[in-house]
Every structure is written in structure tokens, then in C-alpha cells.
Design a protein that fits this description.
Elements (H helix, E strand, L loop, with lengths): L14 H33 L2 H39 L5 H7 L1 H29 L5 H23 L7 H34 L9 H40 L6 H5 L20
């Protein structure tokens, strides 16, 4: 009991109610996301035109398809969970089944929260992109997060399900559909970003030689700064993921492997260093 992660500070008899509440909350979040996307679509048609309207419509349509796929996924997951409880609880009550399988129940709650959170974040990112106050990269990251949380929900449901379950087969099919729709969001976002950037391409034809050289040097400086910043952000992302896994109770450090000294090179294979070449 002491070694168990304190991920959920609730009583076991409340776990069953928590599952139902979280699944209902996720469904509600998705329905709200669909309504917000429809409102954004109407707003985009009124406030934009040309290439920007085309890009916004394509991105929002792909987001709508993704939300519909997620809604079907959550519905199928709910049906599978009911099937699992009914087939596994025996003479016990539903609450007793959830309490007995508390770790599995906590996994379902966590996965459901992740799916609902991902859908909400996607809609907020899409809203900022349509209003030209956000970044296209946010939509891409949100799509990847939704695909990951979907896999988490399927894995949590699959643990207790019968292999021959029709609901399990439907859930796996829904998961593949969600991944496909998430990939469509990424594709439409990237193509839209390229269209906008091509439209806003700078024209250097009117610059003098000195001005061009100055712009070139400034761009080189900016490239070096961005490369340095990118490397720092990658290191930060790695540390964040380590902490995430540690809090989830699944991160383990391979101390034995790290403690092993590197093998000493064999003397027989040492070679004379090559002579320096003339420039």
C-alpha cells in the first residue's frame, strides 16, 4: 500500500462513480468541441476570404472529422467497459468490481481524462489559428497527443476484455479511425501552412547588393540562434518526459547499465593515427 503511487486520492468505493463521471465528462467535452468548431467555421466564412478561407475550412473540416471519430471511440469504449464489468464481477456489485480492480479502473479514468483534454486543446489551438493568433505547430502537437491518449484508452480497455469481444474489435477499429483522422489534421495543417507562407513570400528583387549581404548575415545569425534554441528545447523535452514517466510510476533508471564501465580497447586492433593531410 505504501509503495502504490498516490495518483488518485479517492476512496475505492468511489472509483465506479468516477469512471462513469469521467466518460460522461469526456463525451460532453467532445460535443462542446464539435459545436465550437461549427461556430469557428461560420466566423471564418464571414471574416476571411481567398486562400486563408480555403485553408481555415480545410483545417476545421479535418478537426470536425476527428471529433466525430473520438465521439464514436468514447461511446464504444463505454459499451466495452460495461461488458467487462458484467462478465467479470460475478456475484459482486459494480462498485466492488471497480474496487477490486482499482489499478485498472484508475487507468481508465486517466485515459478518459487524456482524451477529453486532448480534444479541448485541439479546439483551442484551431481557434487561435483561425484568428491568426496561434501557431500551426500547436495543432500538429495536439493531434499527436490525441492519437497517444487514444492508444492509452484502448490499452486500458483491452487488459480486461475478452479477445473474442465484438466491442473490443469495434474499439480497435475506432482507434485506427481516430489515428487516420488525426493524420488528416496534421496533413491539412501542414499544407495550409505552406500555402500561407508561399503567399507571404518576401520579394528580394528590389534590394541592392549591400542590402542583400546585410540581410544574408542577419539571417545566418538567426539560423544559429534558432539551432541553439532548438537543441535546448529538445533537452528540456527529454527531461519533461522523464519526470512525466516518473510521476506515472513507470519510469525506471537502468542504473546497472550506467554503472558498467566502457570496455577497454584491445591492443591488437589499435592503429597508428593517419598523417595529417596537406590542405
Amino acid at each position: 500500500q505504501e509503495l502504490r503511487p498516490k495518483s488518485l486520492d479517492i476512496k475505492q468505493e468511489e472509483l465506479g462513480d468516477m469512471v462513469e463521471k469521467e466518460m460522461a465528462s469526456t463525451s460532453e467535452a467532445i460535443e462542446d468541441a464539435v459545436r465550437r468548431i461549427e461556430e469557428m467555421m461560420s466566423q471564418a466564412r464571414n471574416e476571411s476570404s481567398g486562400v486563408k478561407l480555403e485553408v481555415n475550412e480545410r483545417i476545421l473540416n479535418s478537426c470536425t472529422d476527428l471529433m466525430k471519430a473520438i465521439r464514436l471511440l468514447v461511446l464504444t469504449s463505454t459499451n466495452l467497459q460495461k461488458e467487462i464489468v458484467e462478465s467479470g464481477r460475478g456475484a459482486a456489485t459494480t462498485q466492488e468490481f471497480y474496487a477490486k480492480n482499482s489499478r485498472w479502473t484508475e487507468g481508465l479514468i486517466s485515459a478518459s481524462k487524456a482524451v477529453g483534454w486532448g480534444a479541448t486543446q485541439l479546439v483551442e489551438s484551431a481557434d487561435r489559428v483561425v484568428l491568426h493568433t496561434g501557431k500551426y505547430e500547436e495543432l500538429i502537437v495536439c493531434s499527436h497527443e490525441i492519437a497517444a491518449s487514444t492508444a492509452q484508452l484502448v490499452a486500458a480497455s483491452k487488459v480486461k476484455a475478452e479477445k473474442s469481444s465484438r466491442n473490443l474489435a469495434r474499439l480497435q477499429e475506432c482507434s485506427r479511425n481516430v489515428n487516420e483522422m488525426a493524420a488528416n489534421v496534421v496533413a491539412s495543417t501542414k499544407s495550409g501552412q505552406e500555402q500561407i507562407e508561399e503567399k507571404d513570400t518576401m520579394d528580394f528583387s528590389g534590394m541592392s547588393l549591400i542590402k542583400l549581404k546585410k540581410e544574408e548575415m542577419e539571417t545566418q545569425v538567426k539560423v544559429l540562434e534558432l539551432e541553439k534554441h532548438l537543441e535546448g528545447e529538445r533537452v528540456r523535452l527529454g527531461e519533461l518526459r522523464k519526470q512525466h514517466y516518473a510521476l506515472a510510476g513507470t519510469y525506471e533508471v537502468a542504473e546497472d547499465e550506467e554503472a558498467k564501465p566502457a570496455p577497454a580497447p584491445r591492443r591488437g586492433i589499435l592503429k597508428k593515427p593517419p598523417l595529417a593531410q596537406k590542405p
